[in-house]
Amino acid sequence: MMGEGSVFCRLLDEGKWKEAKLIMRGTTESGASPEQQREVNWRRILEVRTAGSQFSSFSLYWDTVQTCYGTTTLSNVSSSRLPGCVDTNHCPSYGLDQTGKATVGRLVTVLAYNSPDVPYIPLLYSITSVLLKQNICEEDCYSFITMLVAPPSSQNISYFTQSKSGWDILCFALKPLAQKYVKGSTSFLESEFGQEASDEFFQSWPWWIFENMELKFVSRVMDCYLYEGHKVLFRTALALLKLFHKAVQDKKGDWYNSTKKDGIHKTFASYCTKLNISPEDLLKTAFKIPRFSRSDIQKLAVKLEMEAKANKLHRVGRRTKSNEELSVDGGPDDRANTQSFSTPQHRPSGTYPIHHLVSELLSKDQLMSIWDELPERIASVKPTLAYSSNEHGVSLTTFFNRVDKYEPTIMVIRTTNKEVFGAYCSTSWGQRNQKNDKGMRMRYFGTGETFLFKFKEGSSFAKYEWVKKEESDSDDDDENQKKVTKDRAKELFMSGDNTMVTIGGGGGTAIYLDENLRFGQTEKCETFENDLLCSDRDFTVNIIEVFGFNDISW
User: 278 pLDDT exceeds 50?
Assistant: First the structure.
């Protein structure tokens, strides 16, 4: 497996770690180009980093694929649905075709499913794409990214930040280092193009490497990154900054004029795609920066973490693809066409255990749209079709007998006009039988997690949340209590008895179903401030389905 002539692998086998590092950096001649030995060297690094582990990720990977997607057939995987740990604004795929992009999507989704405690890894998609471009098989790619997320603690190496705060600290860390190691470059950019533009530019520095450079440069950086950790990324960014400064400092030159005209971001991205040096020369520049060490990064990270806790770190004009064109000619502009969720998402959007569900009402994409909106703790719970009017009949008694034992539930209704809408009901329908402090049966129950939804033409999804959801997060308890007392009509979530089922109230009822589950009404209500959920106020039911989650009957 090691391959003939791999000097790097031989040095690792002999325990000559420093010599192996110099070979990988290109500081010492190895007799072969990095491209020729890349796959062999990367696999050997993986072996070294996972030495002694009895854990096999092969079976876990395919078992999780089956759980997440209901099949191992790649054609059923949508590359546009990515887990919340990925920043969908930054998904370079380096020329991968649709199958490759779908494979990357599957890899990061499975990782997110098996690592729910890791909420945010923006570089995950990029690095997974690079691994796949090196013809590393899917299972081994999964072993790589698993190792990168959780490297052995005994080896004192770090690859990824794994939280939103960690990512912010990483993004803020480069400028202080640049002020120390390439001070002239930093001062020049600030003086010529303004501090705010400079700050914004620095805060996006990881994407200088993974989005602005061509694959041959990224792969060469990855050679060292896999062996040495994320300090290589800092060195590479400083090298790019130093080279860009050389190009832009001529005030009569094209790069300077372009920066004045188009701004630092766009000009720098163009510069990186047109680097007139080799990947080897880029690394030589990076590793010639003197007295730069891992401890510098660690000390700075501690300082920035303290500043973050004191709320002293502030992003400047965070960019997305929607407000600035990130790709330039010659760069990795074939980004995956990803569905854009808010960033960060704290749950994997494409890993819901719903592929076993058979619904007469909803397509898989419609099910996904609903599951995207569920609370994090519920989204990964395997649901059950608790009630179907076609299967179980249209008796309200049967309805309650079947759904009362589940909490929460999702009710979906299709009218005879083929309009589909419903509600996420946060508490059990069995609560209608509970009594309040005065011994009276509770007329309304439920919580502010309840929401309404409908599918408009073309299956576009509309959601109506509790109108006081934002207010509920206020720290002013006295003020909140006044509002609760005054706006009782805005908390009428769920209601039911032996004559009807209703959801939402105050000035109207969002969903009303009669005792035969045949006829209903929809109105605007104060609890959700919703539109009518179907085209007519009065509707006739074609079919009702209720999906249940936790069985609370025990």
Answer: yes
Helix (H, G, I), strand (E, B) or coil at 412: strand
The values of phi and psi at residue 467, to 5°, are -65, -20
Do residues 147 and 43 lie in contact, with contact meaning Cβ atoms separated by under 8 Å? no
**What is the token pair recorded at 168?**
């912010």
Distance separating alpha carbons of residues 93 and 78, to the nearest angstrom: 15
CA distances from 105 to 144, 210, 349 (A): 15, 17, 11
pLDDT for res 26: 86
Question: What is the rounded distance in angstroms from the CA atom of residue 509 to the CA atom of residue 504?
Answer: 5
CB 248 within 8 A of CB 270: no
Whole-angstrom distance, CA of residue 276 vs CA of residue 40? 28
Q: What pLDDT shows up at residue 485? A: 45
Q: In terms of DSSP bridges, do strands 519-521 and 451-455 run parallel, antiparallel, or are they unpaired?
A: unpaired
Tokens read off for 141: 């790619």
Q: How far apart are CA 159 and CA 148, in angstroms?
A: 6
Model confidence band, residue 29 (pLDDT cutoffs 50, 70, 90): low
Give bridge partners of residue 406 from the DSSP assignment.
Answer: 551
Whether 389 contacts 534, CB under 8 Å: no
Cα–Cα distance, 444 to 177 (Å, whole number): 59
pLDDT of residue 475: 45
CA distance 159 to 68: 26
Confirm if 209 and 218 have CB atoms less than 8 A apart.
yes
Query: Which string of DSSP letters, residue by residue, matches 137-153?
Result: -HHHHHHHHHHHHS--G
Q: Is 9 left (phi over 0), alpha (psi -120 to 50) or beta?
A: alpha
Q: Rounded to whole angstroms, how far apart are CA atoms 535 and 538?
A: 9
Is residue 384 classed as helix, strand or coil in its secondary structure? strand
Amino acid symbol at 475: D
For residue 13, what are its two tokens? 């086998």
Residue with tokens 């569900």: 357
CB 331 within 8 A of CB 273: yes
Peptide bond into 408 cis (omega under 30): yes
The phi, psi pair for 423, rounded to 5°, reads -155, 145
Q: What are the Cα distances from residue 262, in Å, to 211, 212, 258? A: 18, 16, 6
Measured distance CA(196)–CA(202) in Å, rounded: 10
What mean pLDDT, rounded, does the chain reach? 83
pLDDT digits (tens, 9 = 90+) for 454-474: 998 766 899 999 987 655 444
User: Which has the closest alpha carbon to 155: 55, 17, 325?
Assistant: 17
Which pair of tokens denotes residue 126?
């990029």
Q: Which range (348-357, 382-391, 542-551) has the least confidence? A: 348-357
User: What is the average pLDDT across 246-264?
Assistant: 93
CA distance 396 to 518: 10
The two tokens of residue 417 are 């006009």
Q: What is the pLDDT of residues 314-323, one digit of tens each?
A: 676 544 333 3
- The burial class, CB within 10 Å (0-12 / 13-18 / 19+), for 433 is middle
Tokens of 307: 């500043």
Q: Evaluate if residue 211 carries a pLDDT over 90.
A: yes
